[in-house]
Design brief:
This protein is mainly alpha-helical and 214 residues long. It has 8 helices and no strands.
């Protein structure tokens, strides 16, 4: 494994841990059993990357090593041991979800560029990698997907991708600078959006304008 691939693997494992804990934490709040919580954590962690790899027509990342399944198991154990600290309150969920989101956006962009696709495709795949696992998680636990709410979520992924693009376009720029800048942008925007209650406009329709189906 080359140096660049090792860095990408480490980022992906860290993102897996963060997203798995966020999914397991939600499952615990819904009183899932251990197996159900593991499944939710796993789906949260690998869902976006699986769709990305299928679309890019490359080997699905978690099928190449058992590490991701094991890491999700360790994440479950962490939540079991520290459940009082991790399950109580929404702040814990937000922290792990924001970290996982940021790291997976970076992974999605890097893997897409490595396959030869242009930057705009890489940004789309970054958004997909970061957010799709959370969409599946929310559907499975019967929650409205955060991706489709007015929260600054997918928009944060898009902003991080644009930041990556800008820094990556500078000649002679070290590879880690676009990566770190992207991740910091995603996390920072999520924190600011929550703190200042930023949101996108809601698409509203007057019920009187809807067709009558009676």
């Amino acid at each position: 494994m080359t140096g660049d691939n090792l860095v990408l693997f480490i980022i992906e494992v860290l993102g897996t841990i963060a997203f798995a804990i966020s999914g397991i934490r939600l499952a615990a709040a819904k009183s899932f059993d251990w197996f159900g919580a593991y499944v939710i954590g796993l789906v949260t962690a690998i869902g976006g990357g699986t769709l990305r790899d299928v679309l890019l027509d490359i080997p699905v990342f978690w099928m190449q090593t058992w590490m991701y399944l094991a890491v999700t198991g360790l994440s479950l154990l962490t939540v079991i041991v520290f459940r009082k600290a991790l399950v109580k309150g929404m702040r814990t969920l937000f922290i792990f979800d924001a970290i996982g989101l940021a790291l997976f956006v970076v992974v999605g962009i890097e893997k897409t560029l490595a396959t030869g696709y242009p930057m705009w495709v890489a940004i789309v795949m970054g958004i997909t990698t970061g957010s799709f696992g959370g969409v599946i998680r929310d559907i499975l636990i019967n929650e409205e997907p955060l991706f489709f709410r007015k929260d600054i979520y997918a928009t944060a992924c898009l902003a991080g991708g644009v930041v990556y693009w800008i820094f990556n376009s500078i000649p002679g720029m070290a590879a880690w600078i676009p990566q770190v800048s992207c991740a910091v942008s995603v996390i920072g925007l999520r924190i600011l959006a929550v703190h200042y209650n930023w949101s996108l406009p809601i698409l509203r329709v007057d019920p009187k304008d809807l067709p009558d189906h009676d």
